[in-house]
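JOB MANIFEST
job_type = single_chain_structure
chain_count = 1
residues = 206
[input]
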Amino acid sequence: MFNYDHIYKSFRSGKLEPFYENLYPGLLVYASRQLGDELSYLAEDCVQDAVMDSFNERHRLGNSMAWYSYMLKSIFHSSVSLVRKNNSRNNYLDSGVAEQATPDLDVAILEQEALDMLYQAIETLPQKYRVILRMSFVEGLRNAEIAKRLGIAEITVKKQKAQMLAMLRDKLQLPPPHYIFLIIKLLHLYTIIICDMVEHRCLNIS
């Protein structure tokens, strides 16, 4: 179980680094999925608004899960509002958009928790595995293409990819035999994150 308590306490005290290092990338994924492909470029705006709102309400929110739920709700409502405005502007407003997109909050929290854990696990992988992960799951390269670019044998790429997945399984503590399917599903969501945002800057809130 991912521990939010330390991040929440730091956030309440105005120290936002733990939040941006651990939770921010997963929230970008959540916002992107709610907005859809056409509006996914607005994901960071939705998340930043949620950060500001939850920071202003931080003393009213009694615990870490109430805080995280508040942030997810804020992101969702901002996303729905943007989708509605975009649909209206294009003259094909679908009255069922919000209803179809509304997530079960408990499911959303569990999904984001899994993504947060995955992001943290990926950051602890050795550099050579992170390179292969980026090429395979983000750039969509085949094993042969990765091998050619890195100047190594294709069998080496296959072995390193298997080792990488095994390391993620151990870090995420996923039971066999379904852990590969779960990891691949999470990695698919992870690829929505813009890779260059790994070293993001913290929002300066005074």
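[summary]
Residues 64-89 form the longest helix (26 residues).
Confidence is low (pLDDT under 50) at residues 93-102, 192-206.
exit_status = 0
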